Amino acid sequence: MRTLSYLIMCLWLLSACSQPEPKLAFDLATIQQDGLVVLTRNAPTTYYINRDEEAVGFEHDTIMDFARSLNVPVHFKLLGSNKEIQDALTAKQGHIAAAGFTRLASREERFEIGPEYYQVEQQVVCRRSGPAPTTLEDLAQVSLLVSSASSYHERLQELQQEQPNLEWQTALFLSPEQLLEKVLEEEVDCTVVDSNIFAINQRYFPELVDTFAISKPQPQVWLMPKGATELRDAVKQWYAEAHKEARTTLYAARYFAHVDIFDYVDVTTFKKRINNLLPQYEDIFRQAGEKYDWDWRLLAAVAYQESHWNPNARSPTGVRGMMMLTNNTAKELGVTNRLDPQQSIDGGARYLSQLRERLPDSIQEPHRTWITLAAYNIGLGHVYDARTLTKNIGLNPDNWFDLRTVLPKLSQPQYYRNLRYGYARGGEPVHFLARIRNYEDILHKQLDQQKEQEKTDQQNSNIAGTKKPTQVKLSGL
């Protein structure tokens, strides 16, 4: 009897779980009462959790601006793909889909279309050292991989009419960042991504180049279910004001404006700056290193990776200064001026120490330092997520070499959708740490060489000072 009751309960639970979500109401009065439900993706161009564990992103910020105009709370519902978002919107499980959708005729047939708030081009992206197609005829000669659930696939189908030899492979579950990595790792010659996606990633993949655009500038829009005309009109009214006051332009600049301070730096340039620029800040690095128990040369390497030792450095997302501190982190550290090298270096060193102390005691050196640096780059929450994944697949979460193989999975939907902190550009801290270690090695070697040269010069000077003057005999006197 107990077994039968258990089976009945299980069947009831399965039936309940399979029931579709209730449809939402779309009149403004109900939305203002119950809140706005927004469908989006956990991705760097839409919505993600930053290293201060705050929700940010271009779509996030613009949606929040719209919500303030209605004075309503927002609930973001994260789905794994554009197809899932569109299907959920059709089922009226969200009020707005805000996930970087381009305006397409096929979408206009299915949805109410919001205002055109941003322009993108579809760009072919390849390696600097590989094939560089600049025409459709060239593109037909290379291996090409794109997402099957994207406007890129649709555009390539159109272009195939004029270039029948054009072929490509499709991937359903790979993010644009993963497609770029496939190109970088020479698994495929080229891919296609939106220009804003490439702009936000080119600082981290400087070996990649956009060779040509396969589309004219295309507008991005929000989608709403057919018939939600009152909501659509409210969005248009909000946008007219936000655009007039340049608020949407500000959000776009924050996330997509190109700043190349994170690109790889030529070793010759770095060595030159060790001689010409580092001496201005060496004493500050030494003081911070001694105060917080860090090798000062490691701190200098971190600062170079972050800002190229530019005290006025600034990123589109608002991190600033020599150590590129966020505004919130600076406040927590008591840093009143992020552009002051003394405050920035001291604050960055102190923040690194705080991260190091918050790691589990089981992590030993040198892994503790390396994982601390990863947390400085990507945020401690995402590092904890990566540790969980590492442990789940049977590897050692206390070992950096195991952890670095797992971190890139934070950008893969099948993994990040089940993690507490969601999407992260997981490959970035791996490259971040590799570059810092490279800078630190160069710094150690060059400073040691300088010390040896100074020692040799001093010895030569001492010899010259103690050597007796040569007696010259003058004849004819």
Mean pLDDT: 86
Question: What top-tier CATH class of the largest domain fits best?
Answer: Mainly Alpha
The DSSP helix count reads 21
Rg (C-alpha, Å):
28 Å
Poorly predicted runs:
1-18, 258-265, 468-477
Q: Could you say what the CATH topology of the largest domain is called? A: Lysozyme
Strand residue content: 5-15%
CATH architect. name of the largest domain? Orthogonal Bundle
SSE-based structural type: alpha/beta
Secondary structure: helix percent: 40-55%
Report the span from N to C terminus.
134 Å
Tell me the domain tally: 3
Overview of the structural elements:
The chain has three domains: 21-116 and 220-256, 3-Layer(aba) Sandwich (D-Maltodextrin-Binding Protein, domain 2), CATH 3.40.190; 122-215, D-Maltodextrin-Binding Protein, domain 2 (3-Layer(aba) Sandwich); 261-435, Lysozyme. 51% of the residues lie in helices and 12% in strands. It has helices at residues 2-18, 28-34, 58-70, 82-90, 105-110, 136-139, 151-159, 176-184, 195-201, 229-244, 247-256, 267-276, 282-292, 296-307, 327-333, 341-358, 367-378, 380-392, 400-406, 413-416, 427-466, and strands at residues 36-40, 48-49, 55-56, 74-78, 96-102, 111-113, 118-120, 122-127, 144-147, 169-171, 190-194, 208-213, 218-225. Strands 1, 4, 5, 6, 7 and 13 form a six-stranded mixed beta sheet that branches. Strand 9 (144-147), helix 7 and strand 10 form a beta-alpha-beta unit. Helix 13 runs parallel beside helix 16 (341-358), helix 14 crosses helix 21 and helix 16 (341-358) crosses helix 17 (367-378).
